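The pair is quoted verbatim underneath.

:::
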Amino acid sequence: MGIAKFGEVDGMGVDLVEISLGDVLAGVLTYGATLQYLKVPTKDGKIVDVVLGYDTIEDYVTRSGRMGATIGRFANRIANSCFCLKGN
């Protein structure tokens, strides 16, 4: 596991936290818990990235699409909200 500076948004630093388990390697940004990459081995042993992500923090801030988002825009912070699912 390692932590590296990735950039800055509105004066606050954004880090890239790298987590590994065996041959699996995940890169998570401290900018909204964004999954930047997930590298896994193929059946023939090559390591490939299976997640779409941007190379810079500026791209995450200015481009649409919410690449790598792990939570919704409001992250359960809408008071008294509700929705219907199959009539319930």
Q: What stands out?
A: The mean pLDDT is 89. The first helix runs from residue 57 to 62.
